[in-house]
Amino acid sequence: MSTRASGRGGEFSVWELFTFFYCPREFYLYRKLGLRPPPLKKMEFSKEQHEKEEERIERRKEIYGIPASEVMEILHDVPVEDPELGLHGKVDTVLRLKSGEFLPVEVKYSDLDYLTRAWRKQMIAYVSLLERKLSKPVSRGIFYLLPRRQVLWVKVQPEEKAELKRDVERMRKIADSDSIPAVVDASRCKYCEMMKYCRRI
């Protein structure tokens, strides 16, 4: 995922949506208190691998799990937004297939081999925003996991797209509140960029 900052008159970024579902407390620290995580070596390495993968992928027989013969066009860093919803972001990659289908692809450097709730919400947002941008139905997307090159398909249902509005409303309530959310899952703390700030509260 590319952009983090919101800064558009109350809009949220898809990264903030992801963070909200990963840990509302982390979202609060970032959005409400304006705290910014320090750059981590893991994040820098992940970004480097992501950029290298973009260069390598077009030379392979499969492009993010799709046979190259079925791919008409590969678009990187595609901006998407819905001002009415109050959400914007940038899709890592969009595949335009010869069948006419458009597929958003999110590349992650992760040891996980399953779809988390936060990841799913992220893809629901990208599918919905891309659909709005193209004025064409978009119903599924792909998580491409490095270094294993594992493909996780996400089929998005219409009711999940409709739920986005309520998700954004919940984010607004936390962003406007002076109450710090509780830690949802302490097992995630060791992976959190905001841990050093969180411990001081």
Structural account:
The strands form two sheets. Strands 1, 4, 5, 6, 7 and 8 form a six-stranded mixed sheet that branches. A two-stranded antiparallel ribbon has the order 2-3. It has helices spanning 14-22, 24-31, 41-57, 117-134, 158-176, 195-198, and strands spanning 12-13, 62-63, 66-67, 71-82, 87-97, 102-109, 140-146, 150-155. With 201 residues, the protein is an alpha/beta fold. The chain is globular, with a radius of gyration of 17 Å. The chain is built from six helices and eight strands; from the N terminus they run βαααβββββαββαα. A hairpin with a 4-residue loop joins strand 5 (87-97) and strand 6. The chain has a single domain, classed as Lambda Exonuclease, Chain A. Residues 1-10 have low confidence and may be disordered.
Task: Based on the coordinates given, report the CATH architecture.
Answer: Alpha-Beta Complex
- Tell me what portion of residues adopts beta-strand conformation: 15-25%
**Overall geometric form:** globular
Alpha carbon gap, first and last residue: 28 Å
Cα gyration radius (Å): 17 Å
Descriptive labels:
Lambda Exonuclease, Chain A; 6-stranded mixed β-sheet; alpha/beta; globular; 201 residues; two-stranded antiparallel sheet; disordered N terminus; 8 strands; 25% strand; 6 helices; single chain
